[in-house]
Amino acid sequence: MYPGVFLAKKKDGTIYYRSSFTYKSKHISLGSYDTELLAHKAYLEATDIVNSKKKNLITDYNKKKRVLTFEKWVVLINLKDNGMYFKNPIYLHPKYFEYYLDNDPFAPLKFDVDDLFFYSTHKIMRRGGHLFVADYGMQVNILNRYGIKNFAVPNKDYIFVNGDNMDYRYQNIKIINRYTGVTLETGKNGQPIYLSKIHINGDYIIGRYADEKEAAIAYNKAADTLKSNGFTIAFQTNYIESMDSKQYKDLYNSIKISKKLRDLHP
User: Fold this and answer.
1) Pairing state between β 203-209 and 182-186
2) Is residue 168 located within the same domain as residue 189?
3) Which residue range forms the structural domain that includes residue 42?
4) Which of 3, 154, 204, 250 places its Cα 20 to 30 Å from the Cα of 85?
5) Closest to 73 measured CA to CA, from 36, 31, 130
């Protein structure tokens, strides 16, 4: 067998070839291949990355026909340059790291180093323009880590401060509308005011409030009122993390909502 190649069999008896190598006492799997020669070429590419005096760049991947996957290419370049091995396609920089998706060496996601442990153990997936990780058996939108609600609209509910929608560093994400049913507006005196509205075959205004949390709780109260009036819509209510149950109850009871909504029935 060629160096770095190991014969293996599937459950049905089909033969395939695994490729791996050892670098600084760490055994690294390079993947499975249909032929011994392809597995050996993967081994040669990997050893060239970690042993070559020439600096390999992530953007070099598409310059030649490669046997290694793009993800493994990123992993090995990071291992050589930074001395750390991650299973996910991560490349470290002094104050942030890049996470590469979709075999694109020119458009990585950027994250703060505080998120390194999470993303080194959670693989990012893309679906319909949304980015998800699998966490405890569920697909979780990565925006949830920033307190951004599901189905939030970019440039309306949140913005990327520098205009780069691949830059997920915390200082680059500004949340405009944090809660379901709440939208920031500018009042007559130029001060911020929060519009609370709920959707029932069209949008119904609940009220306008000086505080974002008041508007969020007003939405919850409207949802509860509509349910008690006989509506069966599954409203997504707001959780106010900074309030204990007594504070929430007191504010809930004091908030006024639209009389039109209080009197609305199916």
Assistant:
1) unpaired
2) no
3) 1-54
4) 3
5) 31
Q: Same structural domain for residues 74 and 171?
A: yes
Report residue 206 as tokens.
């609940």
Which structure tokens are listed for 198? Answer: 């709920």
Cα–Cα distance measured from residue 155 to residue 222, given in angstroms and rounded to the nearest whole number = 27
- State the CB neighbour count (10 A cutoff) for residue 115: 18
Residues 107-148 have pLDDT tens digits of 999 999 999 999 999 999 998 888 999 988 889 999 999 988
**125: β partners:** 132
> What distance in Å separates the CA atoms of residue 109 and residue 119, rounded to the nearest whole number?
11
pLDDT tens column, 137-193: 889 999 999 988 877 889 989 999 999 999 999 999 999 988 999 999 998 888 999
28, 54, 80 — which closes off a domain?
54
Q: Report the relative pairing of strands 15-23 and 203-209 from DSSP bridges.
A: unpaired
Confidence of residue 6 (pLDDT cuts 50, 70, 90): very high
* E-assigned strand segments in 119-217: 124-127, 130-135, 138-141, 158-160, 173-175, 182-186, 192-199, 203-209
Here the tokens at position 192 are 């911020």
- Average pLDDT value for the chain: 94
Distance of CA 25 to the CA centre of its chain: 33
Number of domains observed in the structure of the chain: 3
Residue entry with tokens 């370049």: 77
Compute the distance between CA of residue 20 and CA of residue 178 in angstroms, rounded to an integer.
47
For residue 64, what are the CA distances in angstroms to 21, 56, 61, 101?
22, 13, 7, 19
Q: What is the pTM of this model?
A: 0.82
Give the integer Cα–Cα distance in Å for 88 and 94: 18
Question: Which residue is listed with tokens 């089909």?
Answer: 14
Q: What is the average per-residue pLDDT within 217-233?
A: 96
| Two structure tokens written together for 264 | 């609305």
